Amino acid sequence: MTIKSQEADVAFIQALAELLNDNELSELQVKREYGEHDALNVRVSKIVPQAPMAPMAAAAPVAAPAAAAPASALADEPADGDPANHPGAVTSPMVGTVYLQAEPGAPSFISTGAQVSEGDTLLIVEAMKTMNHIPAPRAGTVTRILVEDGAAVEYGAPLVIIE
């Protein structure tokens, strides 16, 4: 491997790391083939916070910054600023893609200020081409929706605040 191709590989890996952070991904793997017997396999990953009940929740600290909260919602947040610690937080039971409506163009399942009953569908998390309806764990008012339609979510990520 020449110094020039090594520098190009380093730049490629740095670009992958930026892509990982910019798209809020936890892992990215790429195989770059240069010829029949020459290839570069790259796996870039970062540690993501686990749900409180996960056995390895005390893993190494995460270097990624937390998402900024809207100024109007700061009064509802716990002292540490993490919406996942809010007592009314509904978290994602799996890794996937969030959808706020049943199909494109359909009305959203919920909106800020909406009253929900226990068991009502709040949103859908698609995982491996399976649409998983996320039910409301209790009755209440939706005070915050913490995700955008089509966004990727991790296990334990806060989705909605119900008070």
From TrEMBL:
Pathway: Lipid metabolism; fatty acid biosynthesis. The keyword Iron-sulfur does not apply. GO terms for cellular component: acetyl-CoA carboxylase complex. Keywords: Biotin, Fatty acid biosynthesis, Fatty acid metabolism, Lipid biosynthesis, Lipid metabolism. Residues 87-163 form the Lipoyl-binding domain. GO terms for molecular function: acetyl-CoA carboxylase activity. One of its GO terms (biological process) is fatty acid biosynthetic process. Residues 69-90 are annotated as: Disordered. This protein is a component of the acetyl coenzyme A carboxylase complex; first, biotin carboxylase catalyzes the carboxylation of the carrier protein and then the transcarboxylase transfers the carboxyl group to form malonyl-CoA. This is Biotin carboxyl carrier protein of acetyl-CoA carboxylase. It comes from Poseidonocella sedimentorum.
